[in-house]
Known about the structure:
It contains 13 helices and 22 strands. By secondary structure, it is of the alpha+beta class.
Amino acid sequence: MSASTPRVGIDFGTSSSALALAGPDGEVRFAQLPTLGALGSSWRTLLFFDPDEQPPREPIQYAAGGEAIAAYLECLGEGRLLQSFKSHLTTASLGRTQIAHHAIGLDDMIALFLRRLRERAEQHLGVPLVAATIGRPVRFVGGRAPEDDRVAADRLLAAARQAGFTDARLELEPVGAAYHYERTLKRPELALVADFGAGTTDFCLMRMDPTGGAREIVGTGGVGAAGDDLDAALLERLVCPALGKGDTYVEMGREHPIPASYYYKLARWHHLPFLAGPRVRAELERLRRGARHPERIDALMHIIASNSAFYLHKAVEKTKVELSSKPQASFDFGDGEVEIHRTVARRDFERWIAPVTTAIAASLDDTLARAGVSPGEVDSVFMTGGTAFVPVIRAQFKERFGAAKLRGGDELMSIASGLALRAADTASA
């Protein structure tokens, strides 16, 4: 690979992705990607397949990113919208899904998304892209042992190469964020980077020197608890009771609880595909016949069948964002068939998400302890990602480090920017 070959940085996220290129002067350019008639620097990590557009014996036809949203809306919810597939990288047993005449696996899905991201970025940047530094979490979602993380990393790397990035390398996402943050420094610091993604929360302790001195990673850590888990808690506690959660049904003269597994899957992006198909529908129809509130099961079945879960999750996300700045927020969802309107107080939301925030705090403390670093030794804390705005999480960092040490800025694009800078370093080395 020639040293002049452009090497991009890619933030391949659970919910959204971005691609950036750093020039010799350190200026970072983001690929502008199409979404609903406009261009933007990030792309939803989505795939859409229209089964009616799959000719036999021809390559699979699909839309990705913002174009997947447009295709989904055009088809009025028909077809297959797949999302959060990054969260399954540690699941070795995950089988293939049938799309008309094609059976595709998880690795294929990631490769298809990255291929379309590469193609659209090439169109905008005007150069062929075959070399990339791709971000990965410290701990992948679902990983229970170091071997799980190694398997997930290998699968991600193989998918990137299948997508046409013949020279693909991985870098920790918080290291990418650290490269971005370092550009704002005037003097050497021991910085803690806290990267709050959709699927994982990652930490990196790094000695940085903007004057050109050596960088040193002092410690890393992470946990599979992040923004999507906050959404899931809100959806399960606030919304799912209107869809039958907590209700009962009568069968053979005995009363049984409606299984919670349907609501667990509904509340989590990466489990939504497991609700599709005739088996789940048959199960829900059986439960409906004996349900104390059959109209709630009807509402759940409608949301599944119409692919309205996409809009349901968007409404939940909007409520979560509102709770970051207000003590109370409204939740509003309606698609013509199902109407759900609720009000939620921040104190209740914080109570519901306590297991998630506790896990994040424990991972933070463990990262510091394993590195042998006390909070007082940390010069600054760079918090990146949307969950950095959640008050109860921010309060955890204020308690440990003090408000004066907390930093932020470009919270949603910092990883892609830093990975591009890291990629430029790699290309010039």
